[in-house]
Amino acid sequence: MMRLLPRWYRADREDELVGALLDAREAGGGSLAEGRELLALLGLGLRARLAAGAAAPARVVAFGDTVRLAALLGLLWGVMKGAVSLGHDLYDAFGYPRTSGLHAAGLDATLSLYTFPSAEQLWRDVALVAAAAVPLALLFAGRRRAARGVAGIVLVAGFAAFLYQYSFSFSPDLLGYFVPQWLPLVFLIAGFHRDAPLPSARKWWLALIGVTASALCFGFFGESYFRGLSWFAWAAALVIPAYFALRRRSPAWSFSLALCCSLVLIQPLVLKATMAAADFQALELVQVSLVGTGIVALIAAGIMDYRRQAL
After folding, report:
1. What's the domain count of the chain?
2. pTM of the predicted structure, to 2 decimals
3. Distance in angstroms (rounded) separating the CA atoms of residues 210 and 80
C-alpha cells in the first residue's frame, strides 16, 4: 500500500505512515477499515503527485501547476466553443439571414437559407456553456468542493450520454472527439485538491467574462463572415502560432498551453479525417496531414520546454 505514494513522499514520512497503518490494523475494523485506508492512501498519493508548495520537489510542483492550468485553459475553451454555438443559433432564432462577402458565388443560395434552431438545440448550447462555466465560476468563488462535485456530475452525465447515444461504441474517431472535452474536467477534479492553491480570482473572472462575451458576439455577429472558408485551416493558422507567441519561461504555462492548443485542434482534426476518409480529396488529406504535424510539434515543444525548465 505504501507504494501508492511517490518515492519522495515515502522517503520523508515512511516511518510515520507505517506506524499509522499498523495502529489502524491493530484497532481492527475488518475489510471496511482496510477499504478506508486504501481510499485515504489513494487520495494522499494523488495530492502528493500534484503537490504545491515548498515542501514538494520543484518538478512535482511544476507538474501539479501544469495540470491545474490545463484544467482552467481547457474549460475556458469549452466556454468559448459553447458560447460561439449559442450566439450562432440565437442569430438564426431571430430570423436574420446569413450573408458573407468571403465565400464563393456558388454558396450564395446556401448562405441565404437558414433554419430556425429548435428549443432543444438552444438548450443544448446553454448546457455546453454551463458545463464548463459553472465549475470555473465555483472555483473562482473559492468553493473548491462544489466546483469539483459539479465537474464530476458533468463528467458522469456526459459519459453516460455518450454510452447511450453511441451504444457503447469506443471507436477512435468518437474517443478523439469527446475525450478532449472530458479531460479538463478530470484535470480540475484531480488538480484542485484540498491542498492545492486556488487560482487568482480577479484575473480568471475577467478571463471567463471576456471569453464568454466575445464568443457570444462572434457567434451572433461575426461567424457568417467566415462562411465558405475552411474553419479548420483558420483554427490551425491561429492556434499553432499562438502557442509559440504566448508561451512563457514557465514549465506549467508552456506545457499546459501546448496541451490545450492540441486539444483544440484534435476535435476538428478527427472530424476532418472522418470526412476525408468518407469522401477522399487531396486537399482534405493535405489539411489533415499539416494539422496533425502541427499537433505533434506543439506537444514536442511543450515537453521540451517543460523538461528544460522543470527538471
Report:
1. 3
2. 0.78
3. 10
